[in-house]
Write a structure and sequence with these properties.
This protein has 267 residues and is an alpha+beta fold. It is built from 4 helices and 12 strands. A hairpin with a 4-residue loop joins strand 6 (83-87) and strand 7. The two termini are 38 Å apart. InterPro entries: PH-like_dom_sf, PH_domain, PH_domain-containing_F, PH_Phafin, SOS1_NGEF_PH, Znf_FYVE, Znf_FYVE-rel, Znf_FYVE_PHD.
Length: 267
């Protein structure tokens, strides 16, 4: 069912032992603004995509292996309530549920799946995660130089190491960030200095990625922050559209099992 909802835009999801644990709509903090996204929680992966037709059609499918996920609860702040971070080595972002109860349910089910996976595999949870990008509307000026004002010509860019919104001159360096890409990625000057300084230390326990050659002219090459947030556009669902509460199937199964067990005991 989930595969058919994504159609040709998605990848095959059916695998031996894979179980759909729950599904529902969460508000994902995208680069430009918060947007509703459909999430499907399986026992080994988290899948989400853009809503084209509610409960019928989705696109821009993203698949996240749960072994790579770390959750961090967010404090309520203004209009942003009931949120938490979904962090991986390649991408991290914030999501928000409609109520505190839904937040607790989502986080508990995801954490349980992660715990079960790591216990079965014997693997350790990842120690490094990609930075959460600061939304565009939270930075009117460059967060590095504190001078450049963003306009149509002076575009916003994101440092892939710290997530700050920076101008072109303040993000003219590139560095290979393992876990995110094999290619050099845009980083701010401060992060570049820290990365190269760490690499130069002879007592480093593990070899770090080699710094990429400097590429000047940050405005060239089409390296826009939007390129790495492909689900930030193509938003066809109305932002004020009401969504049903999330559904977690194992809860229903446990309830049914409990009822059946109680019924047998009564008999």
């Amino acid at each position: 069912m989930v595969e058919s909802c994504f159609g040709s835009s998605g990848q095959p999801l059916a695998e031996q032992g894979r179980v759909l644990v729950g599904e529902g709509v969460l508000t994902k903090m995208c680069r430009k603004k918060p947007k509703a996204r459909q999430f499907f929680l399986f026992n080994d992966i988290l899948v989400y995509g853009n809503i084209v037709i509610n409960k019928k059609k989705y696109n821009k499918q993203h698949v996240i292996p749960l072994e790579e996920v770390k959750l961090e609860s967010l404090k309520d702040e203004g209009q942003y309530r009931n949120g938490w971070l979904i962090r991986t080595a390649s991408k991290s972002f914030a999501v928000y549920a409609a109520t505190a109860t839904e937040k607790e349910e989502w986080m508990a089910h995801i954490e349980k799946c992660i715990e079960d996976l790591l216990r079965k595999s014997g693997k350790q949870p990842p120690s490094e995660h990609a930075a959460v990008w600061v939304p565009d509307n939270e930075a009117a000026i460059c967060m590095h130089c504190k001078k450049t004002q963003f306009t149509v010509l002076n575009r916003r860019h994101h440092c892939r190491k710290c997530g700050s919104v920076v101008c072109g001159p303040c993000s003219s360096k590139r560095y290979v960030l393992r876990g995110q890409s094999e290619k050099p990625l845009r980083v701010c000057l401060q992060c570049y200095d820290e990365l190269t300084r760490d690499r130069a230390r002879p007592a480093a326990p593990q070899p770090a990625a080699a710094p990429a050659p400097q590429i000047s002219g940050a405005g060239s090459g089409g390296d826009s922050s939007a390129d790495d947030d492909s689900d930030d556009d193509d938003d066809r669902v109305q932002p004020d559209q009401k969504h049903d509460e999330p559904k977690f199937y194992n809860d229903d199964e446990k309830t049914e099992e409990t009822n059946n067990h109680s019924s047998k005991e009564t008999k």
